[in-house]
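Notes to self, Alpha 1,4-glycosyltransferase domain-containing protein:
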Amino acid sequence: MLKELQFFLSAILLLACVFFYQLSLKSSCLFSCLPPQKAQQDPEALLGHGHGIVFIETSERMEPTPLVSCAVESAAKTYPEKPVVFFMKGLNTTTRLPSNSTYPAFSLLSAIDNVFLFPLDMKRLFEDTPLRSWYTHINASVESNWLHVSSDASRLAIIWKYGGIYMDTDVISIRPIPEENFLAAQSSQYSSNGVFGFLPHHPFLWECMENFVEHYNSDIWGNQGPSLMTRMLRLWCKLRDFQEVSDFRCLNLSFLHPQRFYPISYPEWRRYYEVWDKDLSFNDSYALHLWNYMNNEGRTVVRGSNTLVENLCPSIDPGLYGCLVSSPLCLHFRQQDEGRRNVPLLYFMKTS
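result:
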């Protein structure tokens, strides 16, 4: 009996040592300390079948905002069988954080089973595409709207290479998009580039990249983004007004009705940050684009405000919210919780 007790205590001591060793590692590293099964993955392996969901961050920001976290998590929950890949410019395989830094949103995102975070290496990404020559000659430091222009280019190249669905980081998923090759209409005659999807190597995206270079002008807002998609769509299709809530189909792509992603138009973007009007229906929508580039007022998701955006985001766990506020160690214990993998991510929102 005594030997059994000694064996048991030894096992407990060994497990405790392993735990504190892992905890010390997690406090000093970021990308290299992702779960082994994720660290060994690569974009080609994950996205090569053309069924992934893609987000992009072209700034150096490492900590996703509550709205970005909401967008990524909502996609992970809406598409549980698909990889949700977040490409971040500020991330690389040797990224390490100072020991006194914490990135709770980043850590919580990486803890979701089907969410993967990768560096955004534009030089490598644009190889073997029409964008290569443009990128090698551009001086990013003097370009207007560079964060947006580089994002416009990156999303074209990623979806052309791997296929899948691209979403801006202010797009909240509601239900799966049933289309493979599609553009999202903001209006009858104008396309968004905030949401689109194609199978790998679709010729429409190749022609978009060619047009991107041929008509490049970063001084004109949207010239490389929604305006590019619109002018290319007009070359491919003879557009007409939408009939009721029916999508428009042309050749082998679909132009999806504005209700699919834009039931609230950009002049009304503040409605997302107002108290939820329950009469407002999104039964015809696959996702909602929140027009965050219009948000110069700095409006954000406020916990407990009962705004539309708060109700759109995945449910909030009050217990974990309090835990994160009171103790940074709580995050580590949460990541070890095998019983709740798809964790909500809005626990660090403003409370006033």
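- The first strand starts at residue 53 and ends at 57.
- Strands lie at 53-57, 84-88, 115-119, 164-167, 171-173, 182-187, 190-198, 248-250, 253-256, 287-289.
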